[in-house]
Amino acid sequence: MKAVGLKKYLPIEHEESFLNVEIPKPVPTGRDLLVNVRAVSINPVDTKVRAPKDQVEEEPRILGWDASGIVVEVGDEVSDYKVGDEVYYAGSITRPGSNSEYQLVDERIVGKKPSSLDFAKAAALPLTTITAWEALFERFDVKLEAKEENKQKHLLIIGGAGGVGSIAIQLAKLAGLRVTATASREETTTWVQKLGADNVINHHESLKEQLQEEVDYILCLNSTEQHWQAMGEIIKPQGQICSIVESPELLDLNVLQSKSVTFVWEFMFTRPMYKTEDMSQQQYLLNQVSQLFEEGHLQATLTETLSPIEAKTIKEAHAKVESGKMIGKIVVKGFN
Length: 336
Prior knowledge:
Elements: E1 2-9, E2 19-22, E3 32-42, H1 44-50, E4 53-62, E5 67-74, E6 86-89, E7 102-106, E8 110-112, H2 119-123, H3 126-139, H4 147-150, E9 154-158, H5 163-174, E10 178-182, H6 186-195, E11 199-201, H7 207-211, E12 215-220, H8 224-234, E13 235-243, E14 262-265, H9 270-274, H10 281-294, E15 302-306, H11 311-322, E16 329-333
Parallel strand pairs: 9-10, 9-12, 10-11, 12-13, 13-14, 15-16
Antiparallel strand pairs: 1-2, 1-4, 3-5, 3-7, 3-16, 5-6, 6-8
Family: Belongs to the zinc-containing alcohol dehydrogenase family. Quinone oxidoreductase subfamily.
Keywords: Metal-binding, Oxidoreductase, Zinc
Organism: Alkalicoccobacillus porphyridii
C-alpha cells in the first residue's frame, strides 16, 4: 500500500524529509480496525516527532495523528464498529501513523465521523478535540451540562487561534463559560471572535494589564515557560491551570503555592499509550462531539486543504504548521 514515511529526521525543506513509500497492508486482530484513510491532518506533534536528530530508521517510519476514513476490516474482538463505518480518530503515538492508505487503530479510541462533515473536515478534529475535551471536562472537571453555574466562571485560553484553541473556545462556550482568548494578529483575532470568544487579548503584551481581573481557569496552548509567571499572577486563588506544551526549562511551582493553585498537564496520547482502564473514554467523547456537530452546535476548524496525500503535500503541510502562523487546521486528503 502507498504511504508517506521517513528514514532520516531532517529539516522539512530537505528533499528526503518525507518519502513516498510502499509498505505491507496490515491485518487487524483483537480490537483493531483496519481503516482506509481518506484524509489526514497535520499537528505540532507531527513536526516535533519529525524534528532533526541523529537517528536513522531501518524501515520507513509513518507519522500522522489525525485521520478520517472507512472501516474495511475488523479484528476478532471488535464490538463497536463494522465494515463500512465512517470513522475519525487520532490514533496512538506508539503505533504507525495515518499517513498511509490503510491504518490499524484500536476501536476504543475511534469515533463515528459526523455525517454532516466530509472526510477533510472530520480529519481536522480528533487530536485537537480530544485535547480540548479532556482539558476542560476532565482536567478542570467543568460540567458541560452545568451552564448556569459555569456562567460565573472565567476561562483564559492562551493561543486561541490554533487547532486546539479553535475547538476549545467552542466547547467552553457550549458549557456556559466566559471565554477570553489570546491572539496577536488581526486575522487571528477575527477567527477567535467568530468561534465565540467573549474577549480577545494579545499574548505578546501584559496579560495582567489587559485582563484587569483574575480568572478561574487557564488553558495554556503556547509557550508554557514564557507565560508561567503571568499565569501565576492572573489565576484566582484555588484556580486551575492546564498546559499542553512541554517546557524546555524547569517550572517554579512555588509561584502557585500561596494561591493553592492546581497545575495539570494534558496529553491526549496518555490513554492509548498506557492502555488505561478508561481508554474507551476517547471513543465516547468523539461520539459526543460527533453528535454536537450533527445538532449544529459546533463549527468545523478546517481552514486549508491540500491534495493528494503524498510526500510533497505532507512536506508543505509540515512547513505551514512549523511557521507558527496557522489558523485552525490544515488537512491533506486522498491518495492518487
